[in-house]
Amino acid sequence: MFTGSIVALVTPFKNGGINFETLKKLFEFHKENGTDAILLSGTTGESPTLSLEEKIELFSFGKKNTEIPILAGTGNYNTKETIELTRTAEEIGVDAALVITPYYNKPTQKGLYAHFKAVSENVKLPIIIYNVPGRTGVSISPEVVAELSQIPHIIGIKEASGSLKQCFEIKKRAGKDFILLSGDDALTIPIMSCGGKGVISVTANIAPGMVREMVQVYLSGDLDKAKEIHYKLLPLTDAMFVETNPIPVKIALRLIGFDVGPLRLPLVEPSEKSLEVIKNELKKIGAL
Known about the structure:
By secondary structure, the protein is an alpha/beta fold. 46% of the residues lie in helices and 14% in strands.
């Protein structure tokens, strides 16, 4: 279920709350383009600015309004709160939870193991670890990932460390069924060469069909075709990170006709220079 192209979906806002009308349109857009699963309340969904109530609303709406599997972003730096939200997501009926390594308080490797073990002991929901040291200040080691992979419903990891060595070590040490997913659009093909089975993608918000095709043709063994699509997507991917994610991708969705609304502070509108970069790349793929 959680392989292929998984979109890290933006959260559309309107009048200070979530714009559920646009959210449903985004679900339909991804169904039409074959997206394999949808992440709600991830970093790209501006999760740090979402209230607990809004996250629960997102998960409930997603479960009720799309047949696409829902991955719920339930993690934060507080183990107790992570357990509580993951339990709630499980009760709602989402398909899996994405749990980030605790940020800011920078736990040790022993603490990281204890955190994920505690979450797993309190739910039956499949859990995907999210490793993104550039945002959290801590990277979970392949040794600890391997230990956690022995826990039955810790099923995989979203790897955004930028280290292919880390990815190789995870695949070498973790169980053969443990799922490695790219957490970095620019490294999806390299990470799949390490044994990865797909991507949790920012770029798929804009070009879901191309991202899915790239992943599927790679998994089918057509590396040349996958690389061809990768090179076509790379300038767009670069544009999606010309400023802090999700600033560019939210502006890009506005430009192609989705009423996703404003960014929430402390994120702000991009510079004119960045806006031109975004527009130019959308024109190149025919989206504008």
